[in-house]
Amino acid sequence: MSNKGKKSANIKDVAALAGVSVATVSRYLNGELGRMSSKTAKTVQEAIEKLNYVPNSVARQMKTRSSKMIAVVVSNVDDYFSTELFKGISAILESRGYIGVLFDVDSDEQRERKLLRTIGSQMFDGLIMQPANGPQTIIEALRRPLPIVTVDREVDHSSWPQVIVNNYEIARSVSRHFRQLGYTHAIVLTSEIKKARTRQERYRGITAEFNHVDAIEISELAHNHQATYRRLVQLIQATAEKTLIFCLKERWLLEFVPQLVFDQLIDNQKVTATGFADTDYAHQLEPRLKLISQNPYLMGGSAAELMLNQLQDHPQPADRIVIPAKFK
Amino acid sequence: MSNKGKKSANIKDVAALAGVSVATVSRYLNGELGRMSSKTAKTVQEAIEKLNYVPNSVARQMKTRSSKMIAVVVSNVDDYFSTELFKGISAILESRGYIGVLFDVDSDEQRERKLLRTIGSQMFDGLIMQPANGPQTIIEALRRPLPIVTVDREVDHSSWPQVIVNNYEIARSVSRHFRQLGYTHAIVLTSEIKKARTRQERYRGITAEFNHVDAIEISELAHNHQATYRRLVQLIQATAEKTLIFCLKERWLLEFVPQLVFDQLIDNQKVTATGFADTDYAHQLEPRLKLISQNPYLMGGSAAELMLNQLQDHPQPADRIVIPAKFK
């Protein structure tokens, strides 16, 4: 089924073999099937297959330099946040004739560079990313200028438009809320803090309000659930203080909190939990927890708007959007 | 930042401006940065940006007809099954120099056709899909011959290699297991059954063992959680029979079972639950449930192997792989 070496047929060959006009083939290729009998459509389709004809939209791309495809690079497709981000991006892009295609960094910075090299060598019109690497690394990996929008992870001194969350402020105000309820000890469940600006900001917000903070850093690539759970239980039982378990990522909340509830370690009195979470599951946990929602779908939509501004050659002056997270 | 109308620079222009040889620019473009000083790399990069030079890999594609990108179309990126499938596909493809690019059908058949039209008009080397539409619709939407592998949802009389699960057999043997434990009533929690062959097979397996079966079909696009939950509770309480809640999709298991546990409606005596589930969360639910694991990662890897066979012009005779699901 490969085309190696074969001389490729053109639209005239297809029209000739199908016994129709070039205009009809062209209508077929543009999906205007309403304008021909299904019998004609079928004949054209068969001719296209027999001749192994490839529509010359690629040749067209060479001229217009547009594929109408936007590369979307997210940190991990296993995270609901990342996939919702993509759904929001896609919805807006598609309303304007573009298509978002998803690349998965799989929580691996090296992999991000590899994906960026591919994206840079292909016909994408733009790039929206939840960056793992810094700007210089990203530019070098792409090896060509491309309209870029970053989302979620703040990039300092960036020339690219970005959409971020008020991570520090929300983490701090939520911490204050629990401190005022008498909670003096915080256990932070998080992926490696230094690896993402988002986590650093959130952690900074928590430590600004709590003096007694224990951080449990979990590797996204490989971790021992039971060992982490035991550590968590030890930290809870090691103190008489009222303890808040603060999950910086929904994945860790869903992985550990239900088990703590089942083991009756979370009573919303001596021990409670909160965290960043957007799925229904998290909000349906019993006992009900007050959680931080970021609205990744809206963040994605906003990032897509910033991308469309660039593609249409009118970037806005202040291309930095902060979407405030909600505590509910 | 768009390139409208500009005459594009070529590699010689870049070499001239950077004051290096064309070979050096070419090494830079191939990522062989180890073979030049970082100063040289920087100079080349600046020349590329100044001239807005786009590597002519697209021109190369026109000749070789290869972008090394495989389009992967999944039914919904919010499903762990779909994202794990993609991770398995990517791992194998990348070990052989290809990159998997993800498209999200978002549980919408019309959307699948739209995505396929884009894929058909772009330079993808192949297509691996979890199909929502039938073969004829897929061929018409693509409008060009492309190596195709289907996965998860069985396609009848398909000329394409496919990777599937033994849906009927596993659903039936698991049903028998619970029947032998005295469960005589089954409540099936599922997305619209007629919309996916996978669900039809699983439902067939359950009804082959249980006489008393209630099906609750939930829309993936929009559903009322509380109404569905009330219906579920009514069905549980309407009978004195031992009831098995059988979730055909992990999403429904995670959305409803924890609440049933909290409301003490699941005791693993009068009422128990099982279903298709691959995430850690599902397997950590308390009380522990025996669940059906499909290993989407392995399914994806197998689909990628079948694709590589086609791309290397040696498709295997029996290109239909059945990955047996596990009950544990």
Automatic annotation (TrEMBL), chains A, B:
Keywords: DNA-binding, Transcription, Transcription regulation. PROSITE patterns: HTH_CROC1, HTH_LACI_1, HTH_LACI_2. InterPro entries: Cro/C1-type_HTH (IPR001387), HTH_LacI (IPR000843), Lambda_DNA-bd_dom_sf (IPR010982), Peripla_BP_I (IPR028082), SBP_2_dom (IPR025997). Gene3D superfamilies: 3.40.50.2300, lambda repressor-like DNA-binding domains. The keyword Glycoprotein does not apply. It comes from the Bacteria. GO terms for molecular function: DNA binding. This is LacI family DNA-binding transcriptional regulator. It comes from Lentilactobacillus raoultii.
